[in-house]
Amino acid sequence: MESHTTATLSASGANVAAISNSHLAVGQLPSMQPLPQIRDPEWLKVEVCREFQRSACKRTAEECRFAHPSKNIQVTTDGKVIACYDALKGRCTRDSCKYLHPTYQIKQQLEV
Ligand SMILES: [Zn+2]
Ligand SMILES: [Zn+2]
């Protein structure tokens, strides 16, 4: 029969495949977004005890595994306080420190 007809057909078929492949590659580009990872004071953040915030925590600051911050310590919008880095190192000399001085339990959580 006429063998050259089939040859032309398969050639054009390969052409179509090549075009759709390049379309796919372009479509995949915008989804690759690198997430910025700023871990600076983030690792010093300690979750504040929810019960303590409602004055309902029966534990002392030492017994509770969540933070019991005093009034001068600023609580972040996500319900956390920043632990005092100097206190972690055992050398905070500030009188009324605005960072949380971590208890033994909280230190354990921070020093992973
Ligand atoms: Zn508590
Ligand atoms: Zn401190």
Automatic annotation (TrEMBL):
<dbReference type="InterPro" id="IPR054429">
    <property type="entry name" value="Znf-CCCH_Muscleblind-like"/>
</dbReference>
<dbReference type="Pfam" id="PF22628">
    <property type="entry name" value="zf-CCCH_10"/>
</dbReference>
<keyword id="KW-0677">Repeat</keyword>
<dbReference type="GO" id="GO:0008270">
    <property type="term" value="F:zinc ion binding"/>
</dbReference>
<keyword id="KW-0863">Zinc-finger</keyword>
<dbReference type="InterPro" id="IPR000571">
    <property type="entry name" value="Znf_CCCH"/>
</dbReference>
<protein>
    <recommendedName>
        <fullName>C3H1-type domain-containing protein</fullName>
    </recommendedName>
</protein>
<feature type="zinc finger region" description="C3H1-type">
    <location>
        <begin position="43"/>
        <end position="71"/>
    </location>
</feature>
<feature type="zinc finger region" description="C3H1-type">
    <location>
        <begin position="78"/>
        <end position="104"/>
    </location>
</feature>
<feature type="domain" description="C3H1-type">
    <location>
        <begin position="78"/>
        <end position="104"/>
    </location>
</feature>
<keyword id="KW-0479">Metal-binding</keyword>
<dbReference type="Pfam" id="PF14608">
    <property type="entry name" value="zf-CCCH_2"/>
</dbReference>
<keyword id="KW-0862">Zinc</keyword>
<feature type="domain" description="C3H1-type">
    <location>
        <begin position="43"/>
        <end position="71"/>
    </location>
</feature>
<comment type="similarity">
    <text>Belongs to the muscleblind family.</text>
</comment>
